[in-house]
Amino acid sequence: MTRTIRAGFESRVQQHQGLTFARARLLVTIGHNEGASQAELAAALGIETPTLKRQLDALEELGLARRKPLPGDARKYAVHLTDTARIEPLLGFRAEVENALIDGIPPEDVATTRRVLARMATNAEHLQRAEGDERDKP
Fold first, then answer.
1. Cα dist. 65→30, 50, 84 in Å?
2. pTM, entire model
3. 18 and 73: one domain?
4. Distance CA 88, CA 94 (A)
């Protein structure tokens, strides 16, 4: 299912901006975290900073994002969308996919599924933190 959604997403965004799924994901994340640092964006996406840097370089080449030095630390940059960046087609596609995926499913079942998945995500984060704590012990 994920591959099908990703393929549809890539097809849609390439028509609009020539974006890949990963770059479009970054673009949406920047839109929701305007002015965040590269490290903050990488953390939000769950990717390494060098990977984010390559994706951000591509968005800058497309004229969709820009980096501005953070005051007080010339080594760090705040990331912003440019005036030409348009995330509405991306967000619109997300809504279309969500509506298609839940078609024919009773609203109460969708709500239960969302609650269960949110709890599973929280549990996974706790598990990851617990494993990290175990590795840090002498």
1. 8, 17, 9
2. 0.62
3. yes
4. 10
| Tokens standing for residue 43 | 């953390």
| Shared domain check, 71 and 125 | no
- Cα–Cα separations (whole angstroms), residue 64 to 35, 39, 81: 14, 19, 6
Task: Report the distance separating Cα 65 and Cα 17, nearest Å.
Answer: 13
Q: Where are the beta strands (DSSP E) in 1-137?
A: 65-70, 73-81
Both tokens of residue 129?
């933190």
Range of the domain at 45: 2-103
Q: How confident is the model at residue 89 (pLDDT cuts 50, 70, 90)?
A: low
Q: What is the pLDDT of residues 19-44, one digit of tens each?
A: 777 888 888 889 889 999 999 999 99
Looking at the structure, do residues 90 and 132 belong to the same domain, yes or no?
Answer: no
Per-residue confidence at 135, pLDDT binned at 50, 70, 90? low
The total number of structural domains that make up the chain? 2
Residue 73 and residue 113 share a domain? no
